[in-house]
Design a protein that fits this description.
GO terms for molecular function: exonuclease activity; ligase activity; RNA endonuclease activity. The chain is of the alpha/beta class. The protein is 23% helix and 27% strand.
Length: 339
Amino acid sequence: MIRPSDLLRETPRGLWCEPGGFFIDPLRPADRAVITHGHADHARAGHGAVAATPQTLAIMAARYGEDFTQSRQSLAYGERVRMGEVEVSLHPAGHVLGSAQARLEWKGLVITVSGDYKRRRDPTCARFEPVPSHVYVSEATFGLPVFRHPDDAGEIARLLASLTAQPERAHLVGAYALGKAQRVIALLREAGYHDPVYIHGAMTALCDLYRDHGVDLGELRPATVKGEDGEKTDFAGKIIIAPPSAFHTPWARRFRDPLFAFASGWMGVRARARQRGAELPLVISDHADWDELTATIKECAREAVWVTHGREDALMRWAELEGLEARPLSLAGYEEEGE
């Protein structure tokens, strides 16, 4: 009798596929790795060979240099390849540009590792596609019933309303450099905001990469004190996107009376918003909320769900009540970069 652990099992280095001879998102350099997406808690440099979507490979090259791996294998969504005895394919996860779920099929058994995912539409990446599987490996970043994310457009409308109400203040929006920043900019454009958006220097390379892959971000300008003409820039009434870490540096103190906003699923938690110093918390998440997690498991898990890096107890209990086998995966090293 074939057991799921014969195909995929948890190890200190990450999820190991024995019949395929590869890890999925390994925590340390491996001879062969399948990478679900480009966030640093999943995509690390130093592997012998990496298989991923072309966008994820481009992100890894931008972050780690062209020699981030000895060899690379580019897989289009839905393309099926053999790795050892296993048929492997990648399917959209809706998390960030190039993000994928890894589907493994071996001797009639199908296990899908979702990586990080969200279900709602994102103008900067391919939308999530359900992958029915015997075993579905799901994240649980927001795996509690209290987490129900509001509509993205409504949160962007709150940002624009604040800009209208306080045009004398620069609006600094904290957003992670890969995925969240580009999504916020694209949502602003969809909401009809066509003024230049100013970005921290740490955003430039990845915004350029998104543009290279067909994502229209409109006019972006560097958030520097002096413009190209040498005149001091007046950021009153402007939107500036910056990594959260920049808020506590001298860079942020150049703006006169700024309004600090922060875009994250965690901004629905008041204590987190206060901790971040967010005057305008924007609940915009790149992860599935409770309703999206449970809907995904209903669609994708035929027999069992394995739950990782999150609040797994409530989600496992829910799955068991739905008649599914549920187990936690204690994969250390996954952070909140996508939020």
